[in-house]
Amino acid sequence: MKLKIKTSSPEETMKVAEKFASSLGYPVVISLIGDLGAGKTTFTKGFAKGLKIDENITSPTFTIMNEYSSGRKPLYHFDMYRLNSLEEALELGFSEYFDLTTLKGASIVEWAENTKGILPERHFEVQITKLGEEQREISIEPKGLV
Ligand SMILES: Nc1ncnc2c1ncn2[C@@H]1O[C@H](COP(=O)(O)OP(=O)(O)OP(=O)(O)O)[C@@H](O)[C@H]1O
Ligand SMILES: [Mg+2]
Question: Rounded to two decimals, what is the model's pTM?
Fold first, then answer.
């Protein structure tokens, strides 16, 4: 099953993500797929809003992971852009955030392609495709359900 939604502003993308966050069961791992500037961080901002997180969400490109704990559930926002392998991510001690038996809350990951194999089988894949300056298609697909 794949859910597809078109948005025409960053605010709309945030709204979709906010509703998604409030409709989910936790713990949950979400992979965000999309080109540079597609809207992965924007989606995460909306997702955080859905968890009632009141902190400002910033891109973790340089820190790799930002943790937010002011909401209904903790949120771990990863950006694997600067990593080159799964081994690097494991050396940084990230495995606990991708294990559904230990994870509390949500791990949401930009550029998980760079750390192939880190995602648990069961996760959501969110793809954001640029259709125009402000147009995006967001597709949400649950993975690993039997
Ligand atoms: N419909 C839309 N949804 C999301 N973002 C949009 C939309 N229309 C325009 N934008 C703009 O596109 C940009 C998306 O940037 P964002 O940082 O969220 O992308 P990203 O996918 O995280 O990029 P990166 O790979 O560099 O981390 C923002 O400047 C945002 O305002
Ligand atoms: Mg980003």
Answer: 0.98
